TrEMBL record:
<keyword id="KW-0472">Membrane</keyword>
<feature type="domain" description="Periplasmic copper-binding protein NosD beta helix">
    <location>
        <begin position="196"/>
        <end position="380"/>
    </location>
</feature>
<dbReference type="InterPro" id="IPR022441">
    <property type="entry name" value="Para_beta_helix_rpt-2"/>
</dbReference>
<feature type="transmembrane region" description="Helical">
    <location>
        <begin position="460"/>
        <end position="481"/>
    </location>
</feature>
<keyword id="KW-1133">Transmembrane helix</keyword>
<protein>
    <submittedName>
        <fullName>Copper-binding periplasmic protein</fullName>
    </submittedName>
</protein>
<dbReference type="InterPro" id="IPR011050">
    <property type="entry name" value="Pectin_lyase_fold/virulence"/>
</dbReference>
<feature type="transmembrane region" description="Helical">
    <location>
        <begin position="37"/>
        <end position="59"/>
    </location>
</feature>
<dbReference type="Pfam" id="PF05048">
    <property type="entry name" value="NosD"/>
</dbReference>
<comment type="pathway">
    <text>Protein modification; protein ubiquitination.</text>
</comment>
<keyword id="KW-0677">Repeat</keyword>
<keyword id="KW-0833">Ubl conjugation pathway</keyword>
<dbReference type="InterPro" id="IPR012334">
    <property type="entry name" value="Pectin_lyas_fold"/>
</dbReference>
<dbReference type="InterPro" id="IPR006626">
    <property type="entry name" value="PbH1"/>
</dbReference>
<dbReference type="InterPro" id="IPR007742">
    <property type="entry name" value="NosD_dom"/>
</dbReference>
<dbReference type="InterPro" id="IPR051550">
    <property type="entry name" value="SCF-Subunits/Alg-Epimerases"/>
</dbReference>
<keyword id="KW-0812">Transmembrane</keyword>
């Protein structure tokens, strides 16, 4: 066997033979393919490689063709559609700009992208009853060009993803629009100035619109409405803009359940009457010396209720506004909780001021009515246990007046000397904004039952105190007798 193995090994080395595995006894036998088989094996290998290339190359060519394919012009598709048609775009890339001058519906999905490289609107809607839904837009036209520009009425824009280097949705004299569940993001340079950016959603002279469920970030103003009445702005999310929601002359409108974070100002409401601002949350507006959660400027006969302003430089700024109801708001962890300048005849009730550096400040603000608010920095006295303090809480304007004259005095905020001077200041105290009956406990409903419950708790505490006094006296007497 040894000779045979040696001989076999020698032949293998000398002739390049190929040994075959015997599957019956799972051992290598002395069978081998002779040199005559090698040409056939080489041919088989070459045929396999050729077949692989035949199958692979067309696939790669198809992919390359897809990558290098020019965008499909969208305007001819629009022009060839009948009025009222529903156009379902197939997956692919389409080019703008496009003008829509008749009612129709344009639908796509995440695999559909419309690209616009020109400094004009990617889609310009000049007709009524147009619907856009579901696709992505890459708008590279610079400010003031918008991804979608609308001058018709009764149009609906929904579920679009817009990356813009200009504006997002621009409406001019376009009533009764529905702008719902769109994502609008700034696609330009992160260092772009405010003059280079457009607004996410921008309405002018466009009444009765509904702006709902949109996510907007990085643009100039998230939602800007001017002279557009009876609008409903609801459930939108605004991030890292100048003003999250900027409203001017929108009488009869509602700003409801919106969220803003890291904007310069969360909600700027200006020049309005009979408007409702409720359920909104504005946090972390503190990037600028003028940052605030909500600014009310020249606002009248409006309701500002159940909002949360947290972690802002100023929680709520009320300037030159009157006859508003400000109720049930959470004003938490701001540098200044509420700031009033030339604000008169407003009513503040059941608001909660918690962990603010300065709870409130007021300058030249008269006849504002405060009642039943909770101030965590106030130590009141509740004699009748009804949850309301018998001592009033007056907002001392000393610090605000001092800083307005010389901003450097901010360095001494809450210093012992500043607190001492503030306590000495009592000039014009009768005109200070004052909460006559502050809440003692946060979140308590002040009803007759609550008052009775308060009396019950007070009685139990008194009884417990008497028991403890009795036990103490007994112990002292017992210890004295025991020592004797």
């Amino acid at each position: 066997m040894e000779e045979s193995d040696d001989a076999m090994e020698g032949k293998s080395r000398g002739n390049g033979g190929i040994y075959i595995l015997n599957m019956n006894d799972q051992s290598i036998t002395n069978k081998r393919l002779g040199p005559g088989w090698l040409p056939f094996l080489k041919v088989g290998f070459m045929m396999t490689a050729a077949l692989f290339l035949i199958l692979l190359l067309p696939l790669q060519a198809a992919r390359a063709g897809e990558a290098n394919r020019e965008p499909i012009p969208l305007q001819p598709i629009i022009d060839n559609a009948n009025p009222g048609a529903v156009i379902q775009l197939q997956a692919g890339t389409y080019s703008g700009p496009v003008v829509i001058h008749k009612p129709l519906t344009l639908i796509g999905d995440a695999a559909v992208t419309i690209i616009n490289e020109q400094d004009q609107a990617a889609i310009f809607i000049q007709a009524d009853d147009v619907k856009l839904r579901g696709f992505t837009m890459e708008h590279h036209g610079v400010q003031p060009a918008a991804a979608v520009h609308i001058t018709g009425s009764d149009n609906e824009i929904s579920e679009l993803t817009i990356h813009t280097k200009g504006a997002g949705l621009l409406l001019r004299d376009a009533d009764s629009a529905v702008l719902r569940n769109n994502t609008i993001e700034w696609a330009g340079a992160s260092t772009a100035s405010s003059t280079q950016k457009g607004n996410g959603i921008d309405l002018l002279n466009s009444d009765n619109s509904r702006i709902e469920g949109n996510h907007i970030q990085g643009v100039l103003d998230g939602i800007y409405l001017e002279n557009s009445r009876n609008a409903r702005v609801q459930d939108n999310r605004l991030l890292r803009t100048r003003y999250g929601i900027h409203c001017m002359y929108i009488d009869g409108s509602t700003v409801l359940n919106n969220t803003g974070e890291e904007n310069m100002t969360g909600g700027m409401i200006m020049g309005v009457n009979n408007t409702i601002v409720t359920g909104n949350t504005f946090r972390k507006q503190s990037t600028n010396v003028h940052s605030q959660g909500i600014l009310l400027y020249d606002v009248h006969q409006s309701e500002i209720t159940s909002n949360t302003v947290e972690g802002n430089r100023v929680g709520m700024n009320i300037a030159e506004s009157s006859n508003n109801e400000i109720r049930d708001n959470d004003i938490t962890r701001n540098f200044v909780g509420i700031q009033m300048v030339l604000a008169e005849d407003n009513t503040f009730t059941q608001n909660r001021f918690v962990s603010n550096v300065i709870d409130a400040s007021a300058m030249d603000s008269k006849v504002n009515k405060m009642k039943g608010n909770y101030w965590d920095s106030f130590q009141g006295l509740d004699v009748n246990q009804d949850g309301m303090s018998e001592l009033s809480y007056a907002i001392n304007p000393f610090y605000e007046q001092l800083v307005s004259r010389n901003a450097a005095y901010q360095l001494f905020f809450q210093s012992p000397g500043m607190v001492f001077l503030s306590n000495l200041h009592s000039e014009g105290k009768s005109s200070w904004t004052t909460d006559e009956t502050p809440q003692i406990r946060i979140g308590e409903e002040h009803t007759g039952a609550a008052a009775v419950d308060g009396h019950t708790r007070s009685g139990l505490v008194g009884l417990l105190g008497l028991v403890l006094v009795g036990l103490s006296a007994s112990t002292m007497i017992y210890m004295g007798v025991w020592r004797k």
